[in-house]
Fold each of these.
Amino acid sequence: MPDIPNITSVDSHTAGHPTRVVTGGLPQLRGETVADKMDDFAQHHDHLRTFLLHEPRGHAAMVGAVLTESAKADFGAFFLGSYNYLPMCGHATIGLAVTLDHLGLIQPKGRESLQFNLEVPAGIISVGVRYQNGRIISVGFKNVPAFVVAADLMFPDIPASFDLAYGGNWYALVEASSVGVDLTPNGVRHAMDVGSSIKSAINAYIDAGDVPHMAEAIHSVLFHRGNREAGQFINRQLVVLAPNKFDRSPCGTGTSARLAQLIEAGEISSGERIVSRNILDVDFMASATPVSDAGNSSKTHYDPVIEGLAHITGTHCFIGSQDDPLADGFLCN
Ligand code: PYC
């Protein structure tokens, strides 16, 4: 590996989940669209993803965002996961907005709110930032449309029924108590074990073409529990991505998929603002309404709006050298 030029980042956390926004030091990326630039990065510079996200500079749950120019929106960005590339990431969109403010790339100029568009590989996202006394108090974004592809699926060797839904990434949604998952920090080890084995089993069925309407593997298993408190719907959830990886935040794309599921099941109404709460008791607010034109799809699509907050944790200037045996990074399961 060549010596890595100094790469700079601004790090933040959204309800506990980290976002590392790369601000400088990357090679020029080729391509018209943000999706093309992500492909160029994946083909030619993937070692920089593992350099930036894996240990000892990151960890399995670290998420990166590469800020790019966009011909279609105010900003462009694609998201890096420790194992893959994400076409959309909700918590990282919130982290990115707070980072743009930190860098002075968006400025309230005395206003109480501002809005910008973000091109991501999954589509164009509209982001709204609210300020009080010059400080951000919330970041909301209208996600790409969410929809349920199948409900109440049961397969041999999968211990519970599940729904399949899209919210910018693909999810299997499982009622937490049906597999003994406790939605607290102490329940995470068990949730990662059960979630990752359910994910592998479902993806084997998808590969075999046994799951109707699905051509793509699921990214994650979303464990949920819903109830009403004083009339307000509280959705507590935990998203498991891999045996060593869960989303600390309430998960923007997962919450989007869950909103579509809840509306279709008649548990919440269209447009109802619900709380989506993580295992650390930090909330996103969320709602969704049906999309008037879902193209050729036979499934009802919903426009999710997700609102949360991120906090800057620091800045980095990474230094990588050829003689570092772990320059490419490493992860343990
Ligand atoms: O917030 O959408 C999200 C997300 C996906 C993976 C990690 N966070």
Note: DSSP finds five helices and 18 strands in the chain.
Amino acid sequence: MATYMHLGEQVDPDEYVVCEYRVTTDIPMEKAAASIAAEQSTGTWTDLTTTTERIVGDYGAKVLSIEGDRTVIAYPVEDFSIDVGGVPQILSVIAGNLFGLESIGKLRLEDVTFPKCITDMFPGPRFGASGLRRILDRPEKPLVGTIVKPKIGLPPKETADYVYEAGAGGLTNSKDDETLTDQRFCPIEDRTVAVAEALDRLESEGHRMVHAVNVSTNGDRIVELAEKVQSWGAREIMVDVITCGFAAVQALAEDPSIKVPIHVHRTMHGALTRDPLHGISMLPIAKLVRMCGGDALHIGTLGVGKMSGNPAGDLANLHACLDPMGGYREIMPVCSGGVFPGMVGTMVKRSGFNVQIQAGGGVAGHPGGVRAGARAMCQAVDAAFAGIPVAEYAETHPELKTALDRWGTR
Ligand code: RUB
């Protein structure tokens, strides 16, 4: 009888989607792994009169290994939709019912590897890290950005003033925050137009900068909204990938009318990623974002910022952005969340220079205001890039000195 257990078997990586899961269960691991493989492919809780050995042999998932609480399960490419399924169908297979199986306990999808025939179905990033660097004329140094703060409340003119000040202080990027879209106090059209004017003014003064306008909305409207913000002058757009869905990122990346980079925020990911024993780790999420065509993605702050995360996990996310995958361009890893100048050195030591570092409170909370806050962030990046200790650099850079006095170093 065909079985789901194939321990020790080597499968052809061109023919299988291979997933690693962490399982916390009271039942024997073999049984747990087999029931995951069955549930997610050709089986269910009982034997079926409708299945055959051929069906299980051809389409059944294979448990390839079990080590401690980890199991590797391979899904035949035939289990995946040829064209129309996209990420929704992929997730239903590799990350669907299994999380709810009463017999299992806790379960976490840790990693996934896709065969070429699947990565070929996805567009990948159009701009990626190199495209962003080209637009900003910043070939080597980390990009330095801000999230306009407060995240809601500023009207369009004040938002644009913030962006202008941030650019005048040297920042390369700014962005809407995840909860700002088209509220009455800051309509998206007025904001986009005002920010575009601020960016034009900066450019006329010799400084190039982009601002990502948040177009997160319902799936049937997102491309249309992105087209509109482009026509209003947006140079970059932002999408909240978990709340909008991977398909929204893909729709934007594939639509020929969208001609600006896509900054991908991951708000709500903590519901999936935070429990080390249950959910979906950020690594598969990062891989899927790259497949779908995001150009920049939040990866965490490598253990120093305000959001939960750790250096090893965030570094794995960074590698998912930068390591070879599917022939895609590299995407820009973004370190964001509780960032301030005194932590930039530690972060960059861990991340390297191909990274975008951004601070909201760490810019707008500077006692000298946004321009001084932007300068302090740029000075911290310059110090890290030159390999100079931040405290030493601050001796000749007063904005950085003020920031270190206020928030210290980490
Ligand atoms: C940044 C902020 C962002 C986080 C999200 O503001 O709140 O939404 O980057 O974090 P501030 P993550 O700089 O004031 O903390 O990207 O890790 O999900």
Note: The radius of gyration is 23 Å.
